[in-house]
């Protein structure tokens, strides 16, 4: 493992959005339209809310789709709002979403992207910070 490095990306947010089944595609499209790069969609089954909302006469399917998107802090509010509106989350029983700070992210980043980030670092905002450390023996 000598010579291998890990690059940590910082100043990022993870947006999690839980919507009714078959609604994820339009929510992801809205997020991509405002700059999100991609999403992870998983399928889930909800409990609890269905019974309460049934009292209001709103039928709620227990099948859900959960969308997770990682974005920079500077994109976070714009992507969050687009997803909220696309998912009709302002209507009863349509879903819920939340956002979490991410301490660090690690994935493969092409050398040309890292070099470009290093060259433009003085003009970039805090969301483009990265930190590279040797993997062998690196503990935090």
CATH architecture of the domain at 11-103: 2-Layer Sandwich
Series of secondary-structure elements, N-terminal to C-terminal: EEHEHEHEEHE
Q: Kindly, what is the distance between the CA atoms of the first and last residues, rounded to a whole number of angstroms?
A: 18 Å
Q: How many β-strand runs?
A: 7
Classify the helix fraction into a percent range. Answer: 25-40%
The secondary-structure class comes to alpha+beta
Mind summarizing the main beta sheet?
Answer: 4 strands, antiparallel
Question: What spatial form do the alpha-carbon principal axes imply?
Answer: elongated
Give the CATH class of the domain at 11-103: Alpha Beta
Flag low-confidence runs. Answer: 123-130, 133-140
Strand arrangement, largest sheet? 3-4-2-5
Describe this structure in words.
This protein has 140 residues and is an alpha+beta fold. It has a domain at 11-103: Alpha-Beta Plaits (2-Layer Sandwich), CATH 3.30.70.120. 29% of the residues lie in helices and 32% in strands. The chain is built from 4 helices and 7 strands. It has helices spanning 24-33, 49-54, 73-86, 111-120, and strands at 5-9, 12-20, 40-45, 63-72, 95-102, 105-106, 130-134. Strands 3-4-2-5 form a 4-stranded antiparallel beta sheet. The radius of gyration is 19 Å and the shape is elongated. The chain starts with a strand and ends in a 6-residue tail after the last strand.
């Amino acid at each position: 493992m000598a010579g291998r490095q890990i690059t940590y990306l910082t100043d990022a947010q993870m947006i999690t959005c839980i919507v009714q089944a078959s609604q994820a595609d339009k929510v992801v499209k809205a997020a991509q339209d405002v700059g999100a790069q991609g999403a992870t969609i998983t399928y889930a089954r909800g409990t609890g809310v269905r019974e309460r909302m049934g009292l209001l006469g709103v039928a709620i399917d227990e099948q859900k789709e959960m969308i997770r998107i990682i974005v920079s802090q500077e994109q976070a509010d714009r992507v969050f709002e687009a997803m909220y509106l696309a998912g009709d989350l302002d209507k009863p029983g349509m879903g819920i979403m939340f956002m979490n700070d991410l301490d660090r992210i690690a994935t493969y980043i092409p050398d040309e992207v890292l070099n470009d980030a290093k060259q433009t670092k003085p003009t970039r905002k805090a969301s483009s910070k990265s930190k590279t450390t040797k993997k062998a023996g690196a503990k935090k």
